Amino acid sequence: MLEKIEQIKSDFDKALQSIGDAKQLEDIRIRFLGRKGLIAQAFTLLAEAPADLKPKLGQGLNQLKKEIEEQYRKAEEAFKEKEKKARRLDLTLPGRKPQNGREHPLIQVANEIKEIFKSLGFVIEDGPEIETDYYNFEALNIPKTHPARDMQDTLYITEDIVLRTHTSPVQIRVMERQKPPIRMIAPGRVYRRDTPDASHSPFFHQVEGLVVGEDISFADLKGVIQAFAHKMFGRDIRVRFRPSFFPFTEPSAEYDFSCVFCRGKGCRVCKGTGWMEISGAGMVHPNVFKAVGYNAEKYTGYAFGMGIDRIAMLKYAISDIRLFFENDLRFLNQF
Ligand code: DAH
């Protein structure tokens, strides 16, 4: 019986070492001090002990019970104190800054372009990215044999349905449902069958511009592009037009801005020329007016394209278009 008392005592000491959570603490209480716990059991055994030993054993047991109760109380207190400390706020810790999202650089630049054209009296239009052959090509005076329709460039869904290769089909959709005067831009995503590299991506972004009315001239086109260049890149930027060809405009031109990095002096980015190619433009072809039922004798108009990705790359001196589409936060956090 005395041995038993020693055993309970040493088991209890061992158990106290391993209090990890409130449940373990409670388990110890039940195991030793519970109604059917080890101490209660020992008292039951006491009844069967020889009469002459009873007083000594009883004393020993009572002593054990007192000690265990006392130690348990202390352990419980220490445990609760420890928990309280762990929960207390450390006011000296620096605050945690939430990671705020922000607009993608291409969205920022697109918004800037939209604001500039809105200030020039343009309205914003929109069209589907999945287009029919008719809107993407046919109505824009791009015949079946035109090289732009080559499987190399166009992503076909069916023979008659494509992912639009440019934003120009929005011109057709707007003119079909609206009479002149028209003064619109249409920003959006376009698709081409290209292998990605520093300057190519299978999808990118364009802004289409279209102005139709009476007595609209090439001089108006030049004025608007010039005004855009000044507002976007600064008043010292010069614009030049070079003769070119597009099926949906006649005459057609490509236009360049003087290099935004060297301001036209010639540098590595503009390959020493002082100029950077932007996109194409021209006077709306009579066949395009015919396709939408406009009177080509009465109305004239100009149209232009613009690459949003390209403008953004110039604005922020970004040398690889793929950076826009990789969503690397180290890149995006800089805007
Ligand atoms: N659609 C042409 C392209 O994707 C860009 C363009 C050129 C648009 C001339 C026009 C234009 O409106 O007049 O390369």
TrEMBL record:
Keywords recorded for this protein, A-Z: Aminoacyl-tRNA synthetase, ATP-binding, Coiled coil, Cytoplasm, Ligase, Magnesium, Metal-binding, Nucleotide-binding, Protein biosynthesis
Class in the EC hierarchy, top level: ligase
Keyword Secreted: no
Subcellular compartments: Cytoplasm
Ligand binding (Mg(2+)): E250
Entry EC number(s): 6.1.1.20
InterPro entries named among the record's database cross-references: aa-tRNA-synth_II, aa-tRNA-synth_II/BPL/LPL, Phe-tRNA-synth_IIc_asu, Phe-tRNA_ligase_II_N, Phe_tRNA_ligase_alpha1_bac, Phenylalanyl-tRNA_Synthase, tRNA-bd_arm
Cofactor info, note text: Binds 2 magnesium ions per tetramer.
Residue ranges constituting the Aminoacyl-transfer RNA synthetases class-II family profile domain according to the UniProt record: 109-326
HAMAP family: Phe_tRNA_synth_alpha1
Name of this protein: Phenylalanine--tRNA ligase alpha subunit
Native source species: Caldithrix abyssi
